[in-house]
Amino acid sequence: MDLSLEQAKVAQSKALLRLFQADCRFVAGAAFASQLPHNNLPEIAFVGRSNVGKSSIINALTFRKSLARVSISPGRTRQINFFNLGNILTLVDLPGYGYAAVSKQDLNTWKKLITYYIQSRSALRKVILLVDCRHPLKESDAGAMHFFQNAAIPFQVVLTKVDKEAPHKQLLESLEKMALTLSFCHPQIIRTSAKTKLGVDELRLSIAESIGII
Q1: Are 98 and 50 spatial neighbours (Cβ–Cβ below 8 Å)?
Q2: Domain containing 102: what range?
Q3: pLDDT for position 106
Q4: How confident is the model over 132-161, as a mean pLDDT?
Q5: Which of 131, 137, 168, 196 is packed most tightly, with the most Cβ within 10 A?
Q6: For the chain, what is the domain count?
Q7: Phi and psi (nearest 5°) for 72?
Q8: pLDDT tens digits, residue range 33-42?
Q9: Which of 160, 124, 148, 185 shows the shortest CA–CA distance to 50?
Q10: For the segment 125-139, what is each residue's pLDDT rounded down to a tens digit?
Q11: 57 Cβ contact partners less than 8 Å away, ≥ 6 residues apart
Q12: Cβ-based burial of 85 (10 A; exposed 0-12, middle 13-18, buried ≥19)
């Protein structure tokens, strides 16, 4: 391998470690639009169906175990949570959609909040759409992809829980077709496991590229 290329890869790895091992702290939780914090840092938002593993992935990305609360109960994230990563980047944990043991009124409130955040947040650089690899493409996930496309928000699909089961064939086929037709969808679909850390480095690199530090 060319020495300069090897040196570039080493420098890249060090830059990623500096970013994602930096001090990471909870900034704010917003249950209403009026509670959204003012922020000059670029934001990367994480969204997906309830219990898809958003909190686990955020913890894995930042080398933490309990930065973002992990719950076995779907729908436990009831607000938009903001985390400051090294005063360089803000990670945003959005409430899960789909099943949640809450009232219809609460679900509608969350939907309006997420819609407002996505459509109005100037600091938002990319949405990471987390999809459980074990099932065919859900209507709600496909709907989320079209929503981000219509909102002109760059997004990337990340499969979760690949340590439990190989990605569903129909899911991969559907996602690959949609990625070709939706211009704001990143062409790379990353397969991850918060448990084994598979794909976590790839996701770190994609996020760093999105905010222009790599």
Answers
A1: yes
A2: 3-210
A3: 75
A4: 97
A5: 131
A6: 1
A7: -85, -5
A8: 999 999 999 9
A9: 160
A10: 999 999 999 999 999
A11: 46, 128, 130, 158, 160, 192, 194, 200, 203
A12: buried
| DSSP H or E segment with residue 155 | strand 155-160
Q: Is 192 in contact with 162 (CB distance < 8 Å)?
A: yes
Backbone angles phi, psi at 102, to 5 degrees: -135, 170
3-state helix, strand, coil in the chain (%, to 5): 40, 20, 40
Helices (H), 87-136: 104-120
Alpha-carbon separation of residue 57 from 65, 113, 140, 198 (angstroms) = 10, 22, 20, 11
Q: What is the pLDDT of residue 178?
A: 97
CATH number of the domain enclosing 156 = 3.40.50.300
CA within 13 Å, CB half, 41: 17
Measured CA distances, 29 to 36, 73, 80 (Å)? 8, 19, 5
Give the Cα separation of 65 and 82 in Å (integer). Answer: 17
Phi, psi for residue 18 in degrees, rounded to 5: -60, -40
Put residue 98 in one of left, alpha, beta given phi > 0 → left and psi -120 to 50 → alpha: left
